[in-house]
Specification:
The chain is α+β, with helices and mostly antiparallel strands. Helix content is about 15%, strand content about 30%. The two termini are about 15 Å apart.
Length: about 160
């Protein structure tokens, strides 16, 4: 059902979506036209960028959702496969400072960058209610405007 490939990180343009399947410490990268996950979590790395809401809609259209990162191991794994700032499934849109995951679970384990989340910091030009994973500083998290255009990570759990 999966087409195994070794193209990850080669810089070649891919016409299919890239999915990483993780199960029991084993990961494999596949290219497929669908997000299929027969056993464990699969992660889709978007090729396009968009707002947090557009990213979530794309994931949900694939019967998945934005990724919920609930352990240092999952964070470390995702850090090895992301190449750009990417939306994750964390926001405080309902109540400022009350961060929660798209599946409704509260935020317990975090990987915020230093002085984050800061809701725009001292300049406060706009609200920062959605979280993304950075590509610098060990893939820490940052809050930013939900209308910013970033890539995203979908997660499908069978």
């Amino acid at each position: 059902m999966f087409l195994l490939t070794g193209l990850l990180g080669t810089g070649k343009v891919l016409s299919l979506i890239m999915v990483v399947e993780a199960c029991g410490g084993v990961k494999r990268t596949v290219l497929t036209s669908e997000l299929l996950c027969p056993i464990c979590s699969c992660y889709l790395l978007s090729e396009s960028s968009g707002s947090w809401d557009a990213a979530r809609k794309d994931c949900r259209d694939r019967e998945a959702d934005l990724v919920v990162i609930d352990s240092p191991e999952e964070q470390s794994f995702l850090a090895t496969i992301t190449q750009s700032y990417s939306w994750i499934g964390l926001n405080d849109k309902e109540q400022e400072g009350q961060w929660k995951w798209v599946d409704g679970t509260p935020l317990i384990w975090t990987n915020w960058a230093t002085n984050e989340p800061n809701n725009g910091g001292f300049m406060k030009l706009y609200e920062e209610d959605c979280a993304h994973m950075r590509t610098d500083d060990h893939r820490t998290w940052n809050d930013c405007s939900c209308t910013s255009s970033l890539t995203w990570i979908c997660e499908k759990i069978p």
